[in-house]
Amino acid sequence: MTDSILVQLRKGALDLCVLAVLSRGESYGYEIASTLVAAVNMGEGTIYPLMRRMQNDGLVATRIVESSSGPPRKYYRLTLLGQQAFEAHRRDWRSFAGAVDKLLEDLP
Fold first, then answer.
1. Residues linked to residue 65 through DSSP beta bridges, in sequence order
2. Average pLDDT of span 58-69
3. Hey, what domains does the chain have and what are their CATH numbers?
């Protein structure tokens, strides 16, 4: 797969990936970024603007927790709207991925 296609696929799935990570529980920015880097090689720099947008859209709520090993950490958790968005994105992804898989299977 060419790099440009892979980059576009990652960009398209980034919201879903972040929502999936947060569906497992509260997490702070660096932890979310590290999880995405390990799972899908997503760049760390793309996470923070996305988290601000998700917060502005009401998909995530935040809280600040003091850290004994550095600056305070901002923890993110899904709101009810965020949980609903995650379920909708997940359904859409599975439907789309299934359709693409079917097309690929039907090729000679």
1. 73
2. 93
3. 3-105 (1.10.10.10)
